[in-house]
Each structure stands twice: as structure tokens, then as C-alpha cells.
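Thread: "does anyone have the structure for this chain?"

Original post by V.I.:
We have the sequence but no experimental structure in hand. Need at least a predicted one for the grant figures.
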Amino acid sequence: MTAPMTPERRADIRDRVEAVERDGTAGEWAYLEGTDTVEVYPSDAATELVATVWGEAGSEEETALGRFIAAARRDVPDLLAEVERLRTEQTRLLAEVEDERRRRAAYVKGMRAGYDAEIDRLKRNGAVLIEQLGKVEAERDQARAALAEALDRRARDNVIAGRREAAALLDGRALLHFQVANALGCGVRFDRARIERAVAAHPAVRQALAELETSEVAA
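Reply from O.Q.:
Generated one for you, C-alpha cells below.
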């Protein structure tokens, strides 16, 4: 693979082409085959010799060289023009590629900025939700503690009330026994046998004891 043609090389070729045009040999060139030469002339001035190719008369090599020299008058300028056209096209394509690269870079940058903004928003919302969850859990724990305290207090109150009711029942039974004993003249000393005999002899006292026992069983 040959090295790219430098701008200096192109400039030298262009200078030589322009020099030929300034010397009055512009336009197409033609070649004439002689006995042992091929001569190249401007097409419109056959008397002005451009080049002479010496060789074997009628040989293919001699003819090819003459044709090459004659065609070079138009081939070289055409090739230079094609090179310039391709370089212009290359410059345009490179500019389009650069524009596309910049457009894609801007698009990616914008998308990344959008993603970053969305991630930040989700992070903020997540932090808010975590904070709210902490508050809900704290309220739940407070509610549990309050419920446990209320249940414990209610249980204590029920125990106390039960004890008071039991004490009241016991006090009522003892008072009734005391009253029966006094009524029967048994004295303060508790005498179950005498009370039972008194109960059997007094229906009213028997009914009062029955009602007291019924209330104790229901309790």
C-alpha cells in the first residue's frame, strides 16, 4: 500500500499541468506513428512536437508509450480534479460524522442527565418512604405499648375488683352468720351445729343463706 499523497506532491503535479497550459500546449494531445518513432502533438497544432518515442517500428511498447503520453494531457488534470472531488467529499463526510458524533454525544448526555435526575428523585422518594415507615413503626410500637399497658391495667383492675367482690361476699357471709348467732343466742363464738339447728327451725334464715350461696356460685 502506497503512502497517501502529500499536499506538496499534489501541488507539484498541478504546477506542471498549469505550466503545460501556459506554454501553449493546452487541449488534447495525439500521437503519430512513424517508421521507428511515435510522435506526440497537440491535436490542433500538428507542427508543434510534444514528445518523440523511439523504438522498434510498429511495436506494441512504442505505441503504448505514445498513447500514454498523449492521454496524459487530459488524464492528469482529470485525476487531479477527481482527487480534489474525493477530498471534498471526504471532508463533507467527516463533517457529517463529526456532527453525528456530537449529536449522539449530546443525546447520550441528555439521556444520562435524565436518568441521573430520575435516580435522584427515586432516592429522595425512597428516603421519604423510609422516614415515613420509621414513623409508622414508631407509632405501632407506641400503640402496642399502650395496648399492653391498658390490658395490664385492666387485668389488675379486674383482679382488684374480684378481690373486693370476694371480700364483700365473705364479709356478707360472716355478717350473716354473726347476725344469726346473735338472733339465736349463740354468742359471738361460731357454733356451726347450733346455727344449723336454728336454720332448720327458722325458714327466713334458711332462705337468706340459700340466696347468699346462690350469689356466690353465680359469681
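V.I.: this helps a lot. Helices lie at 7-22, 60-184, 192-201, 203-218.
O.Q.: and The first strand starts at residue 29 and ends at 33.
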